[in-house]
Amino acid sequence: MNASSSFLCFPAQLADDRMPRVVIFGAGHGSTYPGQDSSGHTLAADAIRAASQADAALVEHWDFDLGGPLFNGEPECCVDVGNIQTTMHDNEGNRTRIEAKTREALALQAVPILLGGDCSVTFPFLSSFSDEGPVWVLQIDAHIDWRDEIHGEPYGYSSPMRRASEMPHVAGIVQVGLRSVGSARSADVDAARGYGSHFVTAREIHIEGAKAALQYIPEGARVVVTLDYDSLDPSIMSGVSARTPGGLTYIQVIDLIAGVGERARIAGFDLTELFPPADIDGMSAMTAARIVVNVIGSIVRQV
């Protein structure tokens, strides 16, 4: 990938063979349902990268979200290695490629950041941590994604948290931003609660703030965060395929991210479900890019 088109113009490799702390990569396709066209989501990673370009020259400027410059006075430590080649409906192949790329980042002792893609990319991303456990999962989403299967596909975008609950290296799950009517049926809610998942609704975050969710994350835990952009209110995140009123604000989302970095340790982060064809004036892509900046800043600042 050309550095001029990467996220914040990050290189694909650091100078002097230094090891990166953060490895960014994109994946357009995960496991698509039969007959469903997911091509709109393949535009997400590059839309986020394009939206970041305006701030590329400002990396050393003061960032009021982070309380200092992005890298907090330290050398640049992020690389963007581009997009994985994925193919719609090649579900098993896509999962294999996503898992392999994530494991490459983990082998460098870096924190992988995956720019999806619908949230079916979350399953292989989480699977990659099988040798890194135990990990907790913080899902920021409007939906619980606990369906067992749809049209015979158990790894689609409605199932990643159920699949996560079956992974031995996943120690617990916190699901935050829940609201309205989604894919969950009563049996799915019962299954999630039976597993021990902690539900935190959007209403609770609006009333109590990020602490309503962070209280369930054990101090010092390693946490994989999966952020579905439909967790945000559509007034600021219109570019999603499942707009739902009453969502989280930008500040609430970055408070959750910073809170994990302060209370525990961010081990991995995927960001999914940006749907550029539904974006309005590029606002969603710009907001998404700012969230990625906050993710990087929080990772840089964690001990």
Topology (SSEs and partners):
Elements: E1 22-27, H1 44-52, E2 78-84, H2 91-107, E3 111-116, H3 122-127, E4 135-140, H4 160-165, E5 170-178, H5 186-195, E6 198-201, H6 202-208, H7 211-214, E7 222-228, H8 250-263, E8 265-272, H9 283-301
Parallel strand pairs: 1-2, 1-3, 3-8, 4-5, 4-7, 5-6, 7-8
Helix pairs in contact: 1-9, 8-9
Give structural attributes.
303 residues, eight-stranded parallel sheet, 8 strands, single chain, Arginase, Chain A, 9 helices
SSE arrangement, N to C: EHEHEHEHEHEHHEHEH
Mean pLDDT: 96
Name the CATH homologous superfamily: Ureohydrolase domain
Largest sheet: 8 strands, parallel
Structure description:
Strands 2-1-3-8-7-4-5-6 form an 8-stranded parallel sheet, with helices on both faces. The chain has helices at 44-52, 91-107, 122-127, 160-165, 186-195, 202-208, 211-214, 250-263, 283-301; strands at residues 22-27, 78-84, 111-116, 135-140, 170-178, 198-201, 222-228, 265-272. The protein has a single domain, classed as Ureohydrolase domain (Arginase, Chain A), CATH 3.40.800. Helix 1 (44-52) crosses helix 9 and helix 8 packs parallel to helix 9 (283-301). It is of the alpha/beta class and 303 residues long. The model has no long low-confidence stretch (mean pLDDT 96). Helices cover 30% and strands 17% of the residues. The protein has 9 helices and 8 strands.
Q: Short summary of the structure?
A:
By secondary structure, the protein is of the alpha/beta class. The protein has a single domain (3-301), classed as Ureohydrolase domain (Arginase, Chain A, 3-Layer(aba) Sandwich), CATH 3.40.800. It has helices at 44-52, 91-107, 122-127, 160-165, 186-195, 202-208, 211-214, 250-263, 283-301; strands at 22-27, 78-84, 111-116, 135-140, 170-178, 198-201, 222-228, 265-272.
